Amino acid sequence: MARSSGLLAGLSIEPLDVRKGGLRYAMTGDGQFRFERGGIAGSTRAQFFIGSGAVGRSFLWQKDGFLFQLPMSWYRGHGWDWSPGYESSETLHLSRPIAPECLNCHGTGIQHRTGTQNGYEWPPVAQGGIGCERCHGPGRAHMASGSADQIVNPSKLTPRLRDSVCAQCHLTGVERVERVGRRAEEFRASDDFDRYFAVFVWDRPAADGLHTTSHYERLESSGCRKGAGEKLWCGSCHDSHEQPPAASAAAYYRERCMTCHNRSAHAQEKEECLACHMPRRGATDATRVSFTDHSIPRDATGKPPSGSRELRAFRGEASPRELGMAWARIANAQRNEEDFGKARGLLNQAYSNGMRDAAALTVLGFLEDRAGNTDRAVEFYEHTRRIGEPQAEALVNLGANYAERKRLKEAVEVWREAARRSPGLESAWVKLATAYLVLGQRDDAREAIRRCLEYHPDSEAIKEIQAALAQ
Ligand code: HEC
Ligand code: HEC
Ligand code: HEC
Ligand code: HEC
Ligand code: HEC
Ligand code: HEC
Q1: pLDDT tier at 268 (50, 70, 90 boundaries)?
Q2: In this structure, which residue's CA is closest to atom 8 in ligand 4?
């Protein structure tokens, strides 16, 4: 955990040189990254990494403090391959924004610039990796006094708060939704996880559905947790400060099992426990990756139960706002119309009950927009803009709605704001360049094109605008 992110400086990287379809990506051992497609080529520098490399490692580049993920990641035992979710891209893909959540789980003391989607002070985290404070709370008083009473000892908290310390990063369920007014970055050891997040899981999860960060929910369903209750937690088997070396891991974990199962005749005669009770299985949300099954099955060879597609709150209570947000994300990822409908119904219900926060209003705006209720969508987008926290994508849509209503000047204003908040957003630049062309502001159009190409060197939409500009 301590090595889970950081500046690239000094790190040596396995060189990369691949062609995939019409794309070519290459990286030198010191992070110089080159890209090429159809005669268009350029380069940038990887400056930050995420992932210790125990499983894999992703690389980030930055421009003006805005952080983006590179399209290739490195996987242990396999080497270079697509970053998760990039598998089907046929054009250069350099502009996936790194949202604060990502750095918050992999680093300490995140330095996000408010009002931006992915802008940070440099370096983007005060400390790479998971620092002491993430589990022990702020250390200033402790350092001044040297007294152990001044830091939080997770194992001495109530079980609910103790488990919250690990849950802040290890529990996401199928979807997790921040509660109104809460931000993941503000969570401190000894806070209650349930006050920050609503977590949703499938009502009956498919047994083979191991996804990244599913350890917590899996353990919750285990016979051990049901039998031992709150006595069993992550710390029953893991030492937060130290990982056992691979060669002695089997013996190390057996000893942990035997703290509770020493009276089982069956256990006593076995030399190790993991191959049968905690097997490794492939992940569903990342290729080339496998995880340890924390549901500790009695018989791992049994037929997995079939899953259901109903969401339920994993723990704590969930409101229609939170359930609606969860369905909206699932609908968006799977492009499922029925789920879009569910999300819209729930969020409209929440709206009638007084829901007025920016995050949820933005989502409701999107849902109304795609359902063709553009007046209502504009109302929600404008509301979030008044509160001062609009998402860049929502601003792009708001501008499009203004443009359709022949309010092009206002459209330009919100598109510029979108590009300021998220400069890697292609649609913002494309819409701006097109609008400037219509308004006869050709220099502004050229500038928008130039900015777009910094992030999307092979943008097809920009090529068309360039052709129109040349006429
Ligand atoms: C909610 C917290 C959370 C968020 C958000 C998150 N991760 Fe992770 N990530 C984890 C945890 C925990 C692991 C360890 C394995 C696990 O639990 O599945 C992990 C594992 C990884 C690994 C493999 C590391 C290794 O070698 O073990 C990489 C690479 C990674 N994440 C990249 C990312 C990137 C890039 C983002 C953002 C775009 C991201 N993660 C967002 C919590 C998170
Ligand atoms: C991933 C969470 C995590 C991180 C990060 C972490 N610790 Fe801990 N630490 C724990 C837990 C859990 C315990 C309690 C262990 C037990 O009692 O079984 C603990 C116990 C301790 C104790 C003993 C406290 C007492 O009351 O006796 C000290 C001291 C300590 N940690 C210091 C550190 C320092 C220094 C760092 C950073 C270099 C650090 N820890 C990072 C989880 C963490
Ligand atoms: C601030 C986020 C964060 C917190 C808090 C946190 N973890 Fe992690 N943990 C991670 C990430 C990210 C990884 C993946 C590290 C990597 O390999 O890049 C990880 C990896 C691990 C691993 C795999 C081995 C290792 O050390 O990399 C174990 C075991 C683990 N965490 C247990 C715990 C336990 C137990 C707690 C609570 C006491 C805890 N974690 C708290 C983020 C966190
Ligand atoms: C904190 C105590 C504790 C620890 C540590 C623990 N268990 Fe358990 N486990 C229990 C209890 C209690 C039960 C329920 C009673 C029983 O079946 O013995 C249980 C049940 C089980 C079962 C039966 C599950 C079922 O569905 O019937 C298996 C298999 C098991 N444990 C394996 C393990 C393995 C393997 C480890 C170590 C990796 C382990 N346990 C660590 C307490 C623990
Ligand atoms: C009953 C014992 C046990 C408990 C309790 C337990 N783990 Fe594990 N965990 C393991 C074993 C065994 C491994 C595999 C270690 C290895 O392969 O070296 C593992 C591996 C991991 C890994 C590394 C990635 C992977 O899937 O192999 C992470 C992350 C992790 N555990 C997180 C957690 C978290 C978070 C909790 C609490 C919610 C937890 N574990 C509770 C036994 C346990
Ligand atoms: C070769 C595979 C295998 C290994 C290795 C193994 N188990 Fe089991 N274990 C099983 C099977 C299969 C069952 C179910 C037996 C049944 O349902 O009658 C079981 C049942 C259990 C149970 C529940 C019944 C009981 O006797 O309490 C526990 C607890 C358990 N195992 C713990 C362990 C522990 C701890 C270890 C390591 C010391 C271990 N097992 C190693 C296959 C294995």
Answers
A1: very high
A2: 224
